[in-house]
Automatic annotation (TrEMBL):
Keywords annotated in UniProt: Membrane, Transducer, Transmembrane, Transmembrane helix
Pfam families recorded: MCPsignal
InterPro entries per record: Chemotax_Me-accpt_rcpt, MCPsignal_dom
Transmembrane segments: 20-40, 195-215
Similarity comment text for this entry: Belongs to the methyl-accepting chemotaxis (MCP) protein family.
Domain of life: Bacteria
Listed Gene3D superfamilies: 6.10.340.10, Methyl-accepting chemotaxis protein (1.10.287.950)
Single annotated GO MF: transmembrane signaling receptor activity
Name assigned to this protein: Methyl-accepting chemotaxis protein
Domain Methyl-accepting transducer: 288-524
Claim: Glycoprotein is one of the keywords in the record: no
A Gene Ontology BP annotation from the UniProt entry: signal transduction
SMART domains, per database record: MA
Length: 573
């Protein structure tokens, strides 16, 4: 069987077209076989009817001849034994039957000059018998008229019977020859019908079997093509490729799976790259946040020292010069610290903006991934509909097989009626039923293959759904990270504004220090003002430290999100 399949030519075209062609070919072969078988059976039936008509004609002729003999005998009895009402009634009844049989025979032999010529003697005989009945037997007669009537009637009866006897042998031989010819024609028709039935049955078995083998080979190669790619994908080989080319639905399925594999591989590579970038950014952000927090703690310590110095200035107004110098030095240190913090906040702002940009790029990448996944899922759903169409065509093949089985059953019934002459026809009918059963088995096998293929497609759709769900979760995490970066940027801007206020306050402190140098009388008031400003500055520093801690926690959260994203990428790979 495998060698035969290898020798068979390959079909090109869509599966549905091949299936329609297969059904049309099977239908044409079945219809042609049925027509030829019906025509042959009709010919046998016609010959059988002709034989029955010839036999019926011969039977009617025998009945006509018997009635003719009976009429002649009754008339001879009447002229020999005398008038009898019973015999006259019997004679009248025989004349009626004679006329009926002759009318039927005359209608049956219409157009046959030979038989019309032969049966013209029976027409003359009926005329003679009828005239004798009307002239001598219709009314009663006495024994005195018996000799006169006998002398007149007997010669007519004898001549009539001699005329009938002269054509009887020829009519019998003619009818017998016709019967024999009809039997020979019937036997020839039966023989020819048997041969035609045998040949057509062989064609009905071989031709559909060849087309079924072609279709089965094509389906098996297409399924193997798709299954090889699916096995390669299951093994993690998303770059699987082969050199086989088809032009049907299986090629579309294979192309869709190939595009899906390429898209998945590109998405995995892109996702891994984005995960590495986000991880790197998160690490930098976390490091910058820790550095910023350390600077804020140092600034807070500096503020504490500055507060102590302000308090000392209030207590030691006598050492105003030295205190003023210390305050000026502290103001310069504060100015330097503010400038350093401003630079650090600018760095944090740049990192936050980069994080926002990366998160937006990640959102676009994941959105593109979701669109590709939905597109591939729709293609696979389209394949499920095409498999449904193929299943309906397979159901059509089952219906044709059922009709073929019914035809074979009818043929078996007709063969049983034909008796011994129908034995060969019965064997052919059994072979047709076997073919119908094999067709059903092939159809069931094809359905099983399509069911397995449909199950594989359902598994692919479920994998797409799971992948889409994970992508949506990743989008949600990316949105959360984007919001965190935005919060960081906003809070960083607020800190920058406060640093500007702090810078202005430091300038005011420097101006106050200059005024202290020129006016000692205002030292206490300036010290008190400086102390108030210092408390305000301390509150700002505390608030900034608290926000910096929040910024550090957000950076740690971003770092954890980046690790989770990278882990998801490894899991998908």
């Amino acid at each position: 069987m495998k060698r035969l399949l290898k020798k068979l030519p390959k079909w090109e075209g869509k599966l549905i077209h091949k299936l329609i062609l297969l059904m049309v070919c099977i239908f044409i072969v079945s219809a042609a076989s049925s027509i030829f078988i019906y025509s042959a059976n009709q010919q046998v039936t016609n010959k059988s009817l002709q034989l029955e008509e010839a036999a019926e004609l011969q039977q009617k002729y025998t009945q006509l001849l018997a009635e003719s003999k009976q009429i002649g005998l009754l008339q001879l009895q009447l002229v020999t034994s005398g008038y009898s009402e019973d015999r006259v009634e019997h004679l009248q009844e025989s004349l009626g039957k004679y006329q009926l049989y002759f009318g039927e025979i005359n209608g049956a032999i219409a157009g046959n000059d030979t038989l019309e010529h032969y049966f013209s003697h029976f027409d003359e005989a009926f005329s003679t018998y009828e005239q004798l009945y009307e002239r001598y037997f219709q009314t009663p007669f006495t024994d005195e008229d018996l000799d006169r009537i006998r002398s007149r009637v007997s010669p007519h009866i004898i001549r009539t019977e001699d005329g009938i006897n002269s054509v009887d042998d020829r009519i019998y031989e003619y009818l017998a020859a016709g019967m024999e010819d009809n039997r020979g024609e019937l036997y020839s028709s039966i023989t020819a019908t048997s041969m035609i039935t045998l040949l057509l049955s062989a064609a009905l078995i071989i031709v559909p079997l060849i087309f079924l083998l072609l279709f089965g080979k094509n389906i098996a190669s297409g399924v193997k093509l798709v299954m090889d790619r699916i096995k390669a994908y299951k093994g993690g080989n998303l770059s699987y490729d082969h050199s086989k080319q088809r032009s049907d639905e299986f090629d579309k399925i294979d192309s869709a799976l190939e595009e899906l594999g390429k898209s998945l591989q590109e998405i995995l590579v892109s996702n891994e790259r984005v995960g590495r970038n986000v991880t790197h950014v998160a690490e930098q952000t976390s490091k910058a946040s820790y550095d910023q927090l350390a600077g804020m703690e140092r600034l807070q310590e500096t503020v504490m020292e500055f507060t102590n110095e302000v308090e000392q200035q209030t207590d030691f107004t006598n050492t105003i010069s030295s205190t003023t110098e210390e305050v000026s030095a502290s103001s310069q240190e504060i100015q330097s610290a503010i400038e350093m913090m401003t630079e650090q906040m600018n760095g944090v702002d740049n990192v936050s903006k980069q994080g926002v940009s990366l998160m937006q790029e990640l959102q676009r990448t994941i959105q593109h991934l979701n669109e590709n996944t939905l597109h591939a899922s729709r293609k696979v759903s389209g394949m499920e509909k095409q498999l449904g169409e193929i299943n309906r065509f397979i159901d059509g093949i089952d219906a044709i097989a059922a009709q073929t089985n019914l035809l074979a059953l009818n043929a078996s019934i007709e063969a049983a009626r034909a008796g011994t002459a129908g034995k060969s026809f019965s064997v052919v009918a059994d072979e047709i039923r076997k073919l119908s059963s094999e067709t059903n088995q092939f159809s069931n096998s094809t359905k099983n293959v399509l069911t397995d293929l449909n199950n594989e497609i359902v598994g692919v759709v479920e994998a797409f759904d799971q992948f889409l769900q994970q992508s949506r979760e990743t989008v949600a995490q990316a949105n959360e990270a984007l919001r965190n970066f935005t919060d960081i940027s906003g809070k960083n801007n607020e800190l920058a504004n406060k640093y500007v206020d702090m810078s202005l306050a430091i300038e005011q402190i420097n101006e106050a220090m200059e005024e202290v140098v020129t006016s000692v009388s205002q030292l206490v008031e300036g010290a008190n003002c400086l102390q108030d400003n210092n408390r305000l500055f301390k509150e700002v520093i505390d608030e900034q430290t608290s926000r910096q801690k929040e910024l550090t926690e957000l950076a740690n959260s971003l770092y954890g999100t980046a690790k989770s994203l990278k882990k998801d990428s490894w899991h998908l790979a």
